[in-house]
Write a structure and sequence with these properties.
heterodimer, A: 3-stranded antiparallel β-sheet, 5 helices, 12% strand, B: alpha+beta
Chain lengths: 113, 152
């Protein structure tokens, strides 16, 4: 399958355990600075900053500047669309099962021959 | 939310052997699932399903126990044999309810294919039909883990 660069970036962003842990922390706290995140993780502030760049590029986090501080938070739309993906599969099966029902019940209505 | 499986049920006002034919015969399947299906409802065999829009995909028939159980695997890499780590399992279970049929559908394996690396795999139908991508599966898995840990 051909992936656009953005899709590859997003996939790569999610595949790295430290970055997933960072997303966990950001979800728990609502928002955090790179320094605050580095206190909770076994990596340096510099490493955290690099991971944040990857996450930001993939559209998973957004940053906001408050004076001298830059605070990061999770971009909720991305995660919401993942949850919606599962319900769209369920909806597809509902449509298929409804078609099976129509077909089967139509067979029954036909006179025996 | 369970990110690994989808379970649906429907009750149909027709006996199981009628429903069985519609669920398992390739010609009938093209009326509710795909544009064309070519396979034999026999365990262990391979066949194909095709969609005009997406192309043709291999399927592997897993269980056929007329008129109760029918299952197949799909969404696996073109160059590999399907198993529980690289494909989705679709299982139909038909139960007679006073002449009507309860159809239970379970599609499972989303977690396994979410872990599959994006590179080197054939296109797969679920992702295309639903506009999904590997990254979407990865996200889904992540969201489910969050949901599970939150309710624990």
């Amino acid at each position: 399958m051909v992936h656009s660069p953005t899709e590859d970036e997003l996939w790569a962003a999610m595949a790295e355990p430290t970055r997933r842990r960072m997303l966990d922390l950001l979800l728990e706290r609502g928002e955090a600075t790179a320094t605050a995140l580095s206190h909770e993780l076994p990596v340096t502030r510099q490493a955290v900053a690099k991971h944040l760049v990857v996450l930001e590029r993939a559209g998973l986090v957004v940053c906001q500047r408050y004076g001298r501080e830059v605070r990061y938070s999770v971009e909720p739309d991305k995660l919401d669309s993942a949850a919606e993906a599962m319900s769209s599969v369920a909806a597809a099966w509902d449509r298929r099962l409804a078609r099976i029902k129509r077909l089967a019940e139509a067979v029954r209505l036909e006179p025996p021959g | 939310m369970d990110s690994d499986r989808i379970e649906r049920e429907i009750v149909i006002a027709a006996p199981p052997d009628v429903v069985w034919g519609i669920v398992t015969e390739p010609k009938q399947m093209s009326q509710w699932l795909c544009d064309a299906a070519d396979f034999e409802a026999r365990a262990g065999t391979y066949g194909s399903m095709s969609w005009n829009e997406y192309g043709s995909f291999r399927v592997h028939v897993v269980r056929v126990e007329r008129p109760r159980t029918f299952s197949f695997r799909w969404v696996f890499p073109e160059d590999s044999e399907p198993n529980e780590t690289n494909s989705l399992l679709v299982e139909f279970t038909l139960t007679d309810e006073n002449g009507a049929t309860r159809v239970r559908l379970v599609e499972s394996g989303f977690r396994a294919i979410a872990g599959r690396h994006a590179g080197g795999n054939a296109a797969y139908i679920a992702s295309r039909e639903h506009g999904w991508d590997q990254y979407m599966m990865q996200l889904l898995d992540y969201v489910a883990q969050k949901a599970n840990s939150a309710t624990r």
